[in-house]
Design a protein that fits this description.
Blueprint lengths: L1 H13 L2 H6 L5 E3 L2 E4 L11 E4 L4 E4 L5 E2 L1 H9 L3 H11 L18 H21 L5 H9 L4 H6 L3 E3 L3 H10 L4 H6 L3 E5 L2 E4 L4 E7 L5 E7 L9 E3 L15 H11 L1 E5 L2 H9 L5 E3 L7 H10 L2 E5 L4 H16 L4 E4 L8 H8 L1 H8 L2 E2 L1 H12 L5 H16 L4 H15 L3 H29 L3 H4 L2 H16 L1 H11 L5 H16 L5 H9 L6 H13 L8 H17 L2 H9 L4 H17 L1
Parallel strand pairs: 12-13, 12-14, 14-15
Antiparallel strand pairs: 1-2, 2-3, 3-4, 4-5, 6-9, 7-8, 9-10, 10-11, 15-16
């Protein structure tokens, strides 16, 4: 661990946390710091601060904080070692020994078995497409102008009509019936009889972000009374709300191009692929979920919404635009100019240049919303006009440009017939209310980080916190703590102090980032709480000079407060408002301390 910690400290010293965070989320410079929408809670206003001077990040709403490695670890949900390597790669810094860092990852055998089964099944479907029986499926693809290059690129196939034979094939490949069932492609006909739910259909494999097949959408070939599409149900691998079609191909193309198109269906993705735009995904007929938004946010590119031009498609695009705006993601909308055609239809009917022209007609959220409301609901009454203004208030509140703001006020005035100043006054009142609500929301969030057990011991906790800060900056304070204090009464402070003592033993000078590395790489169950408290401590105002007088004054306060407040008083306050399980833990800790005295 010591070598890993030294390596991590070395990487942190060579890292630029602004560059690291900005590779995931756009940052806005404010004074000497940077701000962005916090990805660790449902944030609508930029509440995460990045300090280039102190090289750490801190959200003042949810409390999350840490250094560059900690940010990557939390954002990508990866191990500490993996996050170290990611930060080093971002900085193009490759110290010796980095390749050996990282604990062995636990192999998910169930996942591996399912992925292998689905891989074999898709190869079977691809093979079946080119058999005499598969000609029916091949003809369908040809009618849809999906040539062999497209079929191979997206691994399209055909599921034979004898679904029982498909199951038997997979069993012969060594896959158990339980594994085949768990993929979601197996249906029970009767006791002991299983068939492929995709039988007799063309197949569209759905892949995860790494390109592994995790499910299928299968289309019927005849106009009968069966469902037009048969989709893999929710399984251990496949969750519709977590996956975007073609993300495995689109992610790298998006980073090269600087944008990604979000389409409605498979055919739209193929249409864009035919004209050389691989940076395209499809939402597969579902709403854009918070998980989808997180995936798109991680690409750190412009999102281009390109849903069908009909009313349902435009309505879905309006909802998606609202969610993206709330999430602070940079996006624009393809302006269909009232056309009901989708990209596949435009390409097939008018050709490549027409589709390219269509895709490059991009508009912002406000213009799109104006056109949407005018087309979907022509304004006839004053109530309808007021409804339009009401819908636009949240959009107008997010505008940063005064020129844009005034321009849209004039447009709304022209559309509704309402006076510009009347609309401006309405938005101003809404902005004042919004500011008030934001303050209440921040206050509520602050309460979430409130520790009731500390309130009765305010002076004691304040003194311990001040000493803890001095320890983060100065080895003299660490030595004073070890010799004169021995342990803080606050449990979280005591744990942080222990990490500082450990760090001081192996370093000539104190460095808060190095202490964070120790915490991150530890086995502490509450490491997030420790990091959040530590980063909160570092952004507060404290005396710069660690003098002997300051340390002695803190010691006197700590001793005075401990002697003034009885253990029973402290215990009673600590138990207030806690669950039974938490009360039991606190009582056990109280008894342990009593026995040590």
């Amino acid at each position: 661990m010591a070598n890993n910690n030294s390596l991590a400290e070395d990487i942190i010293k060579h890292a630029d946390i602004v560059k690291v965070v900005e590779s995931y989320i756009p940052l806005i410079k404010q004074g000497k710091n940077y701000k962005c929408v916090c990805p660790f809670h449902d944030d609508t206003n930029p509440s995460l601060t990045v300090s280039p001077e102190k090289q750490f990040f801190k959200c003042f709403v949810c409390g999350t904080g840490g250094n560059a490695i900690g940010f990557v670890q939390k954002y990508e949900h990866i191990s500490f070692g993996e996050a170290m390597r990611k930060v080093a790669d971002l900085m193009d810094y490759h110290p010796e020994g980095l390749e050996r860092v990282g604990r062995p990852q636990k192999v998910d055998t169930r996942k591996e078995e399912l992925l292998k089964c689905l891989h074999d099944l898709n190869l079977y479907y691809q093979f079946a497409l080119n058999t005499p029986e598969g000609k029916e499926g091949l003809d369908y693809f040809e009618r849809r102008n999906l040539d062999v290059s497209i079929r191979n690129k997206y691994k399209l196939g055909y599921a034979p009509k004898d679904g029982k034979a498909t199951i038997e094939f997979l069993q012969k490949k060594g896959h158990s019936l339980k594994t085949i069932e768990d993929t979601g492609v197996c249906k029970i006909i009767s006791a002991g009889v299983y068939r492929d739910m995709n039988e007799g259909r063309v197949t569209f494999p759905i892949c995860d972000i790494d390109g592994n097949v995790i499910g299928f959408s299968a289309r019927r070939l005849k106009n009968d009374d069966t469902a037009k599409y048969m989709n893999t149900p929710e399984t251990y691998l496949f969750h519709k709300t977590n996956n975007l079609y073609n993300i495995h191909i689109a992610k790298d193309a998006a980073k090269l191009k600087g944008y990604i198109y979000v389409c409605e269906g498979f055919m739209d993705v193929y249409a864009l692929g035919k004209i050389g735009i691989d940076a395209a995904v499809a939402i597969m007929g579902t709403a854009l979920t918070s998980e989808h938004i997180q995936i798109l946010r991680s690409l750190n590119v412009e999102i281009r919404l390109c849903l069908d031009g009909d009313l349902p498609g435009q309505s879905a695009m309006m909802k998606i635009a609202r969610n993206l705006a709330k999430s602070g993601i940079n996006f624009r909308v393809v302006d269909n100019q009232g056309s009901d055609r989708d990209p596949d239809e435009i390409l097939n009917e008018d050709g490549k240049e027409a589709l390219e022209e269509y895709l490059n007609k991009l508009t912002n959220q406000v213009d799109f919303a104006l056109n949407y409301y005018l087309r979907s609901n022509p304004l006839k009454t004053n109530e309808e006009k007021k409804t339009l203004i009401k819908e636009f208030i949240p959009i107008l509140l997010r505008l940063n440009s005064q020129i844009e703001f005034d321009s849209y006020l004039r447009k709304l005035s022209k559309i509704t017939g309402f006076d510009v100043e009347s609309i401006r006054d309405l938005v101003t009142r809404a902005r004042m209310m919004s500011a008030s609500e934001d303050k209440q929301a921040v206050s509520k969030a602050v309460i979430q980080n409130f520790h009731p057990e500390r309130e009765a011991l305010q002076k004691l906790v304040t003194a311990e916190r001040e000493l803890l800060y001095q320890m983060s900056q100065n080895k003299q304070a660490v030595a004073f703590y070890e010799e004169r204090i021995g342990g803080f009464y606050d449990d979280v402070y005591r744990q942080i102090a222990n990490f500082m003592v450990e760090y001081a033993e192996n370093h000539e000078e104190m460095d808060p980032s190095g202490v964070m590395v120790l915490v991150q790489d530890s086995e502490a169950e509450n490491k997030d709480e420790l990091l959040n408290d530590l980063t909160s401590l570092l952004v507060e105002t404290h005396p710069d000079t660690c003098s002997t007088q300051l340390l002695n004054n803190l010691l006197d306060t700590i001793n005075d407060e401990k002697s003034r407040i009885t253990d029973e008083d402290i215990l009673e306050n600590s138990l207030e408002g806690k669950s039974e399980l938490e009360q039991a833990r606190i009582i056990a800790e109280f008894r342990r301390r009593k026995m040590k005295k």
